[in-house]
């Protein structure tokens, strides 16, 4: 079965500009900020490594600031990051069984788009960004 590419990325054959997790030099299965900057540098030859790192950092900082302000973040064909408020509740210390109060807080949840779910499942992305119907 042919590996599906993320939305908006066209496969280039053997000399693809973006590496998959199993092709990274260090063998990690996690894409890091450094990996993103390196991929941007390879994709855009005119951009230096320093500029690619600055761009990556700027995008991540903007995303974090948006979420910290309580706004949701939607990336078409990727998914949505949503800030949810959790109420105060009672929990238990697993070691002692004693009740422990858990303070109210905000959390970020991620909801993958239908296309991203299909790609992760090994299906090709929907053509032209059209939605998949389950």
UniProtKB/TrEMBL annotation:
It comes from the Bacteria. SMART domains: BHL (SM00411). Residues 1-32 are annotated as: Disordered. It holds the Pfam family Bac_DNA_binding. Coiled coil: none annotated. Belongs to the bacterial histone-like protein family. Residues 21-32 have a biased composition (Basic and acidic residues). Keywords: DNA recombination, DNA-binding, Transcription, Transcription regulation, Translation regulation. InterPro entries: Hist_DNA-bd, IHF-like_DNA-bd_dom_sf, IHF_alpha. This is Integration host factor subunit alpha.
């Amino acid at each position: 079965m042919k590996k599906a590419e993320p939305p908006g990325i066209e496969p280039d054959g053997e000399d693809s500009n973006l590496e998959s997790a199993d092709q990274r030099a260090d063998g990690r299965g996690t894409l890091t900020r450094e990996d993103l900057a390196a991929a941007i540098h390879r994709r855009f030859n005119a951009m230096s490594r320093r500029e690619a790192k600055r761009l990556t950092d700027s995008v991540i900082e903007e995303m974090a600031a948006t979420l910290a302000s309580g706004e949701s973040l939607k990336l078409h064909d990727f998914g949505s990051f949503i800030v949810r408020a959790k109420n105060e509740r009672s929990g238990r210390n697993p070691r002692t069984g004693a009740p422990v109060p858990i303070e109210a807080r905000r959390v970020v949840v991620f909801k993958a788009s239908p296309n991203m779910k299909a790609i992760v499942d090994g299906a090709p992305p929907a053509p032209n960004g059209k939605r998949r119907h389950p």
